[in-house]
């Protein structure tokens, strides 16, 4: 991959960290973004330090932080080739009962999962377009089917629509847009009620991301749904 630059949001753990590791192993220089830069700093050191990987504190719900990060990447490395808009949050919700998080706590999830990738796309698109780049968004299998009471699923339906809207606007720019929709993945974020369900490893999702990114520049893998063998159709 030479000197290509691959930015990952939500890179401090789970799917984002696994994808950053895999991209780094394939030769990309990586930028690791999360709110808590201490975890991403450890990962950046593991991946070769400042010439190969650097970490940044960035809250994707704050447009100015995402735009500032993209600007720093271009100033430091002169290019931006792949952006993985992956940061996400999940709380359990119910519209009919007291189960799950109280409504006062729902807003952060909506901002992170919907405004996060939207702001990331808006901030990165000019740089990506300059370099014939690739935007990859983390949706979810939950963004394709009905999940009773789940506002999280509704945010991931929004990501499905967002990817399509961005791709439609990018016609003629050479930019590629891929939506990756993982099924249940073994990271810190899964609810206790699903602990016994079959799960992907974060690396399984990372391979799907790299598969899309490593296609020839004329090939746009629009969507990848990747689920563990045996995952129930409605989970
Ligand atoms: N795990 C699953 O079963 C599953 C299935 C389908 C889709 N997904 C999606 O895959 C993505 C990654 O999930 P995961 O399970 O790997 O998550 P995770 O282990 O909970 O990690 C979430 C990552 O996002 C970062 N993050 C959260 N809020 C942020 C914000 N406002 N700004 C910047 N970074 C933020 C976290 O770092 P900080 O807290 O330091 O900011 C962390 O790096 C999410 O979009 C999730 O919805 C997950």
TrEMBL record:
It holds the Pfam family adh_short. Keywords: Oxidoreductase. PANTHER family: DEHYDROGENASE/REDUCTASE SDR FAMILY MEMBER 11, DEHYDROGENASE_REDUCTASE SDR FAMILY MEMBER 11. Belongs to the short-chain dehydrogenases/reductases (SDR) family. This is Short-chain dehydrogenase. It comes from Saccharothrix yanglingensis.
